[in-house]
Amino acid sequence: MKNFLQLILVALLFWQCGAPQEKSSKTSIVCTTSMVGDAVKNIVPEGVEVISLMGPGVDPHLYKATQGDLERLQNADVIVYSGLHLEGKMGDVLEKLGRIKKVIALSNGIPETDLLHPPENPEGHDPHIWFDLSLWAKGVAFVKDELGEIYPHWKDDLGANFFAFEQNLLSTHNWAKSVIDSIPENQRTLVTAHDAFSYFGRAYGMKVRGLQGISTVSEFGLQDISTLVNDIVAEEIPAVFVESSVPKKSIEAVIDGCRQNGHRVILGGQLYSDALGEKNSPTDNLIGAFKANVQTIYSGITQKKLPQNLTQ
What is the DSSP letter of 123? Predict the structure, then answer.
C-alpha cells in the first residue's frame, strides 16, 4: 500500500515539475466527494471552477483514484476533501499533496469534542459529519476562512455566500428535528446497510443500527446478519433502509432473515449516505438529499405521508 501511494506521489511531482499542461484560466478547486463539492460551490464566487471527483452512487470508502483524477488534482489550484479517513485509500495521497499545493480538510473545522468515535475503533473518528447539518456548517465555515486566506479578494463574496448557505443548513436542521419528533418515540430506530447515520441519530433523536461498521471496507458476516435480525424482531422494528452507495444485498439478507423468524419488515426506501443524487435532480445537492432522506425515513417507518404542516 505504501509503495502504491509513493508511486502516485512521485508521478504527481513529476507532472508538477515536467512540461506545462493546458490549464483553465479559471481558478480550479477540486473536491473529493459530492458533499464537499456542494459545500464549496455554495460559498465560492461566481466563475470559480469546482470539480467533484466522486459522482452519484460512489462509495468514498472504496474509491480508487483514476489517472484522470490524478491529473485534475495536479492541475487544481486548491484541493478540498472531507477527511477523518472518509476517502480511504486517497487520504495519504491528499496529505502528501499538501506539501506542494494548498489542501484543505473540511473536518479540520470540527472541534474534537463534537466528533463521534465508532465502537469498532474508539481511537478513530466517524467521518459522516454531514448528517448533522449544524456540524457540517462548522466545517464549511472553516473552508470559507481558509479560502479567504488564500484569496483575500474573495472574502466579501465568501462571507455573504456562506451566510446564505448556513441559514439554509440550519433551517433544514430544525425542520428535520420537527419531522423526527413527530415519529412515535418507540419507533425512532433507523436500520441501514452501514453505520453512516450516527451523527444523524445524535442530532435528531434516533437510535441507529448498521449492518456494517462506519466503513464499507469491513465485511459483514452471518453473525452480523443474525444479530441485527434478532434485534429487529425483538424490538418489532417495522422498516429497514438501503443506501444509494452500498449494494442492496446486505439489507435484503436482513429482510429475509426477519421473514424466516416470523417478523415482517419492509424496505422503507433508499437513503443517500456517502454520495448525493444524480446530476440535475432534486437530490444533487446536500440539502435536497438530506430532505429526501428525512421524508423517506418518516414515510418508511410510519407508513404515512409527511403531514402538510411538516413539508418544506
Answer: T
- The Cα 12–Cα 7 span in angstroms is 9
pTM to 2 decimal places:
0.89
Contact 274, 59 (CB under 8 A): yes
For 178-260, list the strands marked E by DSSP.
Answer: 189-194, 207-212, 239-243
Q: What single-letter DSSP state applies at residue 106?
A: G
Helix-, strand-, coil-residue percentages of the chain, each rounded to 5: 50, 10, 35
In the prediction, which pLDDT does 64 show? Answer: 85
221 and 100, same structural domain?
no
On the question of pLDDT at 62 being above 50, the answer is: yes
What residues have CB less than 8 Å from 80, skipping those under 6 apart? 29, 30, 31, 32, 36, 40, 103, 104, 105, 106, 143
Interior angle at CA 38, CA 36 and CA 42, nearest 5: 120
Instruction: Calculate the dihedral angle through the C-alpha atoms of 30, 36, 37, 38, rounding to the nearest 10 degrees.
Output: -160
CA distance 85 to 61: 8
Identify the CATH number of the domain in which residue 97 sits.
3.40.50.1980
Please tell me the distance from the alpha carbon of residue 267 to that of residue 241, in angstroms, as a whole number: 6
For residues 67-90, average pLDDT = 93
Domain boundary among 114, 142, 175: 175
Strands, E assignment, 7-91: 28-31, 49-52, 78-81
- For 278, the domain range is 184-305
* pLDDT tens-place string over residues 22-61: 555 789 999 999 999 999 999 999 999 999 999 998 889 8
